[in-house]
Known about the structure:
Helices cover 39% and strands 19% of the residues. By secondary structure, it is an alpha/beta fold. The protein is globular and about 60 Å long.
Amino acid sequence: MxxxxxxxxxxxxxxxLAACGSDDDTAAASTDGGVADEVRLGYFAxxxxxxxxxxxxxGYFADELGDGTTLSTQVFNAGxxxxxxxxxxxxxxxxxxxxxxxxxYGQSNGDAIxxxxxxxxxxxxxVVREGIDSPDDLRGTTxxxxxxxxxxxxxxxxxxxxxxxxxxxxxxxxxxxxxTPNSDIPNLFQSGELDGxxxxxxxxxxxxxxxxxxxxxxxxxxxxxxxxxxxxxxxxTEFLEQYPETVDALLRAHVESVEFATDDPEGAKAxxxxxxxxxxxxxxxxxxxxxxxxxxxxxxxPIATALARSAExxxxxxxxxxxxxxxxxxxxxxxxxxxxxxxxxxxxSEGLGEE
Length: 355
């Protein structure tokens, strides 16, 4: 298997621009070896990015980074846009789903990024309007995903293909897929312009509780033991190599966020909701937040066993031309060092990188 190109055209240009940039163009440049002056962190205003939201809201990132490193954050709708920002040198680290990560790794021949921790499992569903009770009922419908090539888009296209329903990244087929920003999906669903959507939390719960949708597919039912990677934390390889102490600080804050989510769910939900309000402009109603939280697991385990299947799904979905060779995509050594310091069990790359 060779590392493959992505289906969307913007990334080759962005990677080329990043590769041609000079050290003077790097916002995180530092002369204090191992410690960056700035960390530019990307994430989504989604409950599936709870670790990022908690880390920002509770001040864990700022505290661990200390006074010498500025934390700058940017909120994205979906992973492909984050990858473009990473390739252009505008981000240093990002919470992101597996499909854009795999595409980024393949597009850069394994050079651009490394996965350094897991962040969430579960929390994605296909929600449809009343009257759609089976895959066959989807013929002639229009379904949404957050963005072409993002993790939910790949999951939707793969599942439709497995059901014998033709779809295409160019449009058309038995089912039309309309990549649509998450924030626009509820209104379009309620107005009848969309028949359903494969979306992450909290959007799936909002469609069910606020818009009268029903769950046709809960993605966790498609994976062994319901475990699959929805979100993980990645960094630019160059940043990882230049600023190991800053990466360690990010990981300490990340683990602290995960532990808070595990040990104090009510406090974690409150922190997530406050952060969602700041990042997306509106906090969630209690029932929506409670349902969304119940559908996912916040974790630092990368669930590496699921990544190879995600790579296969990209080919089946038509968003990746060839299956990507994932060897070397993980560098879990910094995370495992943090876990060891805290007396926590190590995690594994399942042979796909350093640990």
